[in-house]
């Protein structure tokens, strides 16, 4: 076999001596003569798909490629030549079996594709016995090719296996008396500590109150709007699942061109280039069976399992059980039957999501690489995916953009990634790319999960669960939907930054739903800033050890804090959030809201109200306030003993010490409403956003 490679290499080298004398197409992106050919090769063949290279052609070569492809495909066979003599000599020497666009031509989206330059990327296929490095060297010497990329493999970001939900686990009678149910009737919501954490000892003896995403009160304001689409880049989502079917996106105009042929109803399977699957089984080269894991369905359930349907679990933005509620899940499948995915599959899925108007890209995958230490490394070694991400994040009709979503005032979408489970002191990629949001993971104790990445590039934390190391075992993991054909149950537990990521995607979807329902216009960057500052403190408890973990190493490195759904809605509403810790008397200066003379104003009232501004003394009980809040010397004095959410209205006199009337020259009453977010850990920023 080695002799075969050597002979083939010498033959190709001889061909190149001839082809180099051929006329070059003029393209400024092609390196000048004498420049190192290897500079065109952007990554390495390690952990790459065999028999495939990804090539980006110069603009002038495209008409030849497209004309040749058009003529060839009429016969039903794949194109294997470019129509350019010098290039085709190389392709023939490599015994190329296919030469096709990475992103298939579809009439509806072709203009955006070409504007972004994505039509220049081609997949070059040949026999798997061909040495990848030799093939890349040959193609890199073709003047009409500007970039060569090995088709790297990517992996799911979850640690461990799925643990099916056991219907015989202890009921509420043996559990914490502090359990608070939401208004929804989903029977297993009380086991979703990541939504409602009341230090339930059946989950973990170290579970901590308030270590959740604070979504129950947010559900009173919105529970998910079907105009918001979330693309799940993962395994196929089981779109017939009883707790997901109603919230699956349905393509009203399936793509009739190949390869879709009108079958992309709820998304597409980019791993197998066909309809979505979720229970496929294959046999690997060692005779071992490989199957799907239920990962994509689990992730989708966290985002949008149907709420209030008396079935299973709840989703962060899963609606209220009525037909016109709940965000929609678009399944963009890149994993199948336990196999790794590739750059090409992922990039194609990202582009599909953009073309079909997804506002949020949910990505619980990453490169299985530890050598990417900077954004520059990522941008240089994964140009195909980076261009696809830029296409997704920028609106259609703009340079490099193609997202048809109009939820944001400036168009485009946001990409949310798992930070990775290698316990690295930096985010994995693509999450580390500065335009993406990278999510770290905590357990029910509010401390970093043992597997989570942390450090530079990590933006925000969310519950990822830990199915080992806690007294409740798997119950300390994240409970969501599963695939019964694979997992033996429709529900179960998983752990990983894969599970943390959809919590942030779900909260983002909930925020966009609230904006849609209240006609709030917001641009992407403003929304991302709101999302990343809607958090509760983590750092104040990162001292000492958790098992063998030195928690001091994580301080300031888990992202800005733990995601909080209610705070995001309050920011969108324009209501300031007062974040305080339990069992402390807090004194908060109101200068920021009542001006520099806040200490000298006359305050006429401090009133407890609900989220709609109506008087509600139940807030006193719900937050465990021993006394009513009062104003003293321009400061709000308040004490709460229970985690939760409430609202306070503070009224002051502007221009005097009493209100003006017909008989009295006085001031004007001004009122400011604050949302109170109470958690066991205090806010490191003094309590104010």
Question: Could you give a quick summary of the protein structure above?
Answer:
With 689 residues, this protein is an alpha/beta fold.
Give a quick set of tags describing it.
disordered N terminus, disordered C terminus, seven-stranded parallel sheet, six-stranded antiparallel sheet, alpha/beta, 689 residues, 29 strands
Describe the structure.
This protein is of the alpha/beta class. The chain has 15 helices and 29 strands. The chain has a seven-stranded parallel beta sheet, with helices on both faces. The longest helix is centred in the last third of the chain and has 21 residues, at 497-517. The termini are far apart. Residues 1-36, 168-178 and 682-689 have low confidence and may be disordered.
Largest sheet: 7 strands, parallel
Number of strands: 29
Radius of gyration: 28 Å
Helix content: 10-25%
- Principal-axes geometry comes out as elongated
Q: What structural class should be given to the helix and strand makeup?
A: alpha/beta
**How many helix segments?**
15
State mean pLDDT (0 to 100 scale). 88
Low-confidence stretches: 1-36, 168-178, 682-689
Query: How much strand?
Result: 15-25%
CA-CA gap between termini: 66 Å
Main sheet: strand order: 7-10-6-12-14-15-16
Secondary-structure topology with pairs:
Elements: H1 2-19, E1 48-57, H2 62-73, H3 85-93, E2 98-101, H4 110-115, E3 121-125, H5 132-140, E4 145-156, E5 163-164, E6 229-235, E7 267-269, E8 281-283, E9 289-291, H6 295-304, E10 328-335, E11 341-342, H7 343-355, E12 360-363, E13 365-367, H8 375-381, H9 383-393, E14 414-418, E15 437-442, E16 460-463, E17 478-481, H10 484-487, E18 491-494, H11 497-517, H12 524-532, E19 535-536, E20 545-546, E21 549-550, E22 562-563, H13 565-573, E23 577-581, E24 584-589, H14 591-594, E25 602-609, H15 618-622, E26 630-632, E27 635-640, E28 644-654, E29 668-679
Parallel strand pairs: 6-10, 6-12, 7-10, 12-14, 14-15, 15-16, 23-29
Antiparallel strand pairs: 1-3, 1-4, 2-3, 4-11, 4-13, 5-18, 8-9, 17-18, 19-22, 20-21, 24-27, 25-28, 26-27, 28-29
Helix pairs in contact: 1-3, 6-11, 7-9, 11-13
